[in-house]
Structures are given as structure tokens and as C-alpha cells.
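Listing S7. Sequence submitted for prediction.
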Amino acid sequence: MHELSIALGIVDAASEELERRGGARVRAVHLRLGPLSGVAADALRSAYPLASQGSALEGSELLIKNEPVTGHCPSCGTEVPVRSPADLACTWCGEPVDRLLGGRALEVIAMEIDG
């Protein structure tokens, strides 16, 4: 379960930022997560309380924003949603996308802190 090590990394990074900002406690950590990141959101949510135990993040919430899989369609010339990682075709014209633009994220995007 590599999600525990990822949760520990999130706690470490958030703790360092909290220290720099002089905050007292973290109420919530906001994370952007894509389906191509290789991280299972449910497993990460389960691992987070254990990873945050004994830290300034203990009792805080891990809020996950899902990043959709998107790609660049050479025919349409735009960023388009992709049906699934197994079907990398433009949802508008059906042509294959030539590169993925979104869906790989694993990024802390915000923290809610007290103090």
C-alpha cells in the first residue's frame, strides 16, 4: 500500500509549510488527484488519519479534487475530455488524442490552517 507513504509525504510537506507560516493546526488539506497518478483515492483517504497521527495535521480532513483525464485533439485543436484511460479518443470528433494534458496530478493545492 504505497498510499501510506504518499500520505506521510503529504503530512511532511504540509507540516513544513505550516511551520513556515507560523500556523497552529491544519483543519484541511486540499489535494488534486488524477486517475492516471497511480494512487487510489479511497486508500489514500484511509491512510491519511494514520499518517497524520501525532502531528499538527491530526484530526484534519483530506479533501480530494478529482482531475479529469484530458488530451489534446489534433483535429479539433483543443483540450478535450477523454472517455477513459483505455479509450484515448476525442469526445467530440472521435479522433485519437496526440498527447495527454490532464489526469496525472498528485498535488497539494491548498491548506486550511488555524492561527
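Caption to Listing S7: primary sequence and predicted C-alpha cells for the chain studied. DSSP finds two helices and seven strands in the chain. Residues 3-68+102-114 form a domain with the hypothetical protein PF0899 fold fold (CATH 3.30.2320.50).
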